[in-house]
Every structure is written in structure tokens, then in C-alpha cells.
Amino acid sequence: MTVLEVVDEIPPNTKLLDRTLFPDIQEKIVAAKTELLEALVAPWQNKAPITTKIVSGVLFLDVIREVLRSNADLVIKATDNDSFLKRVFGSDDMRLTRKCPCPVWLVNSASEDTIRCIVAAIDVDDCYRDEEIDTRQDLNRTILQIASSLAQRENAELHIVHVRRQIDEAVVRAGLKDSPETDISAYLETAHRRHLEGLQALMDARIEELDQEIIAAAKFDIHWLEGAPQDEIATFSTSVKADLLVMGTVARTGIPDLFMGNTAEAIQDRIECSLLAVKPTGFVSPITIEG
Questions:
Q1: pTM of the entire structure?
Q2: What domain range includes position 114?
């Protein structure tokens, strides 16, 4: 484990003065931070090998570069808690979840130490292009595996949530306007039932792919919600008093630099619990080591 702290660089407009009066001020700041960080991790050194590292730069950029250098599997960070905008997650949190190649666990500093309730948000709809369905199914598998493993480890309850898109009744009625009302109602009912059956089959297939020992140990419920995902997932997470929301951050394939969709970003603005943001296999960060 590497414990990393990113120190802001001295602003360019003060560097000339600093070189005159305090030529080594940046080095002194880093040295002082290093001493504090080493004291902070000292009590945990007997539990795991821990390396401390201080760098000067931009937080989200240097965290991602450290991930790339070390091939890290997970980033854990306290949320920024933007009190001015009354948001749990700040701008660095948003950038990390968009561009970091590995999962990012953003811990709400106001949350409890114990994880008692986990929500896993997946998307098992099949109304996408084939290549995007593959990406989303891969992401679903990863989300479920991580969430169920954590639920087993923490002895927490697990809620698996999918928000299904509503059938646009107005569009159907417009298309069948010359048909009897009984036929229109029957069509809508059949379409609704088939949609649910298809989603259930997809959900069952994802769950069957999980480690059965983990599934047997985890206490989980499946929830079908209907409406706008950003509203329903945030509201549901609040209603069950979730400590952690596990969700994917890829919106769609084929659009450069769009790694986090409007749904995920809107949810990030509305939840108060911690967030574990997951990327699909093969995700490539736009950030490079060299910058």
C-alpha cells in the first residue's frame, strides 16, 4: 500500500519572491509533510507494508500518474466535502472517477467506520449497440463481484438495483391510434411483462457468474426501480441508509473523453454515502505518466 499526499505547488506569481527570501520553501514544505505523513501511518506499519510518498502538483493528475506507475488496483480517497456548494464530492473527486483507470473508493469523511449496507447499481438493459452491451455486461460483472465480496467481508446487507426505462406509452398510443383500446392496453401489458422477464433473465445470468461461496454468504435483495436512474438510485440509497454505493462510470463507447455519463455524475452530486466507482476491463485513462 502506498499512502500518497499531493502538495500544491507554489503559485507562479510568488516564485520569484520565494527564491529570494526562501529559496528552498517548496522542499521544506515537502519535508514537513513527509514527517507528518510518516507519523500518521506508523501505527499501521505492523499490519501491512506501507510506503509514504509526497509529491508537488495537482491532486487528481498525480494520483492517476502514481496509479499508472505502480499498476495500482484501487484508489481510496476522502471526499472533498464542498461545503460552499453543499456537495459531498468535489472537483478532484469528479476528475478521479472520470479518468482514473482503476476503481476509486471515495470515502465520505462523515460516514461511519462500519459498512452495514451496500447498494450495487447495475444496468442490464439490452437496448444498446452490441459493443456497448458487452462493455456494460463486463461492468455489471465487476460491480456485482466487488459488491458481493465486500458484503461478505463486512457482513453487510447488499441491495442490487436496476432502474428500468419506462415504456413510452404516449409513443405507443400514437402509433396504434387507430386500434381499439383493448388492443393497445394488451400490447402495453405484454411489452411491460416481456421487458421485465428479459431483465430478470439478464440479472439471473449475471448473478450466476459470481463466486457461489460469496453469494451464499452475502445477504442480498434485488430491486427493480422505474424512472430516471439518477433520481431513483440516489433516493433508494438514502432510503436504505446505504454506507456505500458501488456503480460503473462508463456511459457509452465510441465517444472520446466521455468516460462518465450524465447519470453517474448526477448521482454523484446527490448521494451522501461513500462511492466506489468502477471501470470496465480495458479502460484507458487519458492521463499519461509523462503528462
A1: 0.81
A2: 80-166+202-278
